[in-house]
Amino acid sequence: MNPLRFALAAALPLLAQTPVTWEDRPAISLDNGKIELVTLTKGGAFASLLLKDDAEKLSPMWNPIRAARETGGPARFGDSLGHFVCVDGFGPTSKDEQAAGFQGHGEAHRQQWEIVSQGKNGRVASVQFRASLPVVEENFTRKLELVDGEQVVYVESEIESLVGFDRPMNWAEHGTIGSPFLTPVHTVVDASVGRCLTRPHERPVDNHRLASAKEFVYPMAAAIDGNQVSIRTVPEQPNSMDHTGCLFDPDRELVYVTALRKDKRVLFGYLIRRADYPWLQEWMNYPKNLNLARGLEFGTQPFDVSRRATVEMGKLFGVPAFRWLPAKGKVRTRFLMFYTRVPEGFAQVDDVRLGGRQLIIEDRKNQLKVELAASLPLQ
User: Fold this and answer.
1) Domains of the chain, with CATH numbers?
2) pLDDT > 90? residue 150
């Protein structure tokens, strides 16, 4: 079964923005001949990202629907797939919130997103969505831009409060990679992070590989058996599920997280304004059946916990664990997402930066570099 079935006849020319279906769900495709991004119109998840010249059609995005189909099991995660946005909320909810109709990971990824504008201005194709969040009384808008000839997606978002008081806000971009892109040994994750903490647990759980509440420096984390293990890669024999929370490098204005499939020589990643999203949580879901998923979740808090818990935490490593949303105010964020081939021998990411209308990605150990056109500003 091909998950992408175009709603337009194949004989028609492909537009920059095209209605499609993905796994029987309505979506819209942004396509510039270099890359194609498919975004669901319910919940706004980035469901698929492809290199147009890739005969294998290997998307880095996590697809639990495909995984369930291949294993014969139920699809467990509903609208939580690919890269979805958790706003306003990231983690579980209290009993009172549940009674009020507020569910985990916020409302945005469960709402129908209205397409408020789409078109092309010169070389820039764009689509803008809007979603109403009724329980938290907020409006969410997201604009996606794709420039002809580039392998970069620009994502600009805004949350607007409709209430007349300041409130603590929780916002995470739940970017999630999955199999077959994510595989033991061959897929490595790099990030410009500083201090990290393994997720605290009140009691041990059988499938945890990492020790509880241990500070570490990426990528070497404390394991339950007392050893240090690298979390850049998936274990050769997966059978674990863990979380880590890392502070993005406070000396950088723009920070990154990347996933490299070394044997396929393809690299996926994000360049992020640290002031918008100071934290990176990684959810490492590694079952024995190899339907692997790894969250590259950048946001306003180090772990997916309730709003009350983030407020009670206050700060970790001296950095706030939540962000304030002003009364009747707005918060705007911007990041970019990229997907590219890399040269033979490219094995790690030591830096991602913008310079001279280019995105520069370096493997300094092997003296290799990738330069991608990136003509739109991020700041």
Assistant:
1) 4-348 (2.70.98.10)
2) yes
Phi first, then psi: give them for residue 337, nearest 5 degrees: -130, 140
Q: How many CB atoms lie within 10 A of CB 144?
A: 23
What SS3 class is residue 48? strand
Among residues 377, 371, 167, 151, the alpha carbon closest in space to that of 273 is found at 377
Q: Residue 5: is its pLDDT beyond 50?
A: no
∠ CA 83-84-87, nearest 5°, is 145
Whether 274 contacts 248, CB under 8 Å:
yes
| pLDDT for residue 69 | 86
Based on its alpha-carbon atoms, the radius of gyration of the chain, rounded to whole angstroms, reads: 20
**∠ Cα 87 90 94 (to 5°):** 110
pLDDT greater than 70 at residue 77: no
In whole angstroms, give the CA distance from residue 148 to residue 376. 12
Buried b or exposed e, range 29-47, using 16+ CB within 10 angstroms = bbbbebbbbbbbbebbbbb
CA distance 24 to 342: 33
> Tokens 């706030």 map to which residue?
320
Residue 65 has a pLDDT of: 92
Sign of the dihedral through C-alpha 66, 72, 73, 74: positive
Q: Which two tokens stand for residue 277?
A: 């999203």
The percent of residues in the chain predicted with pLDDT above 70, rounded, is 94
C-alpha atoms less than 13 angstroms from C-alpha of 143 in its C-beta half-sphere: 13
Cα separation of 324 and 196, whole Å? 23
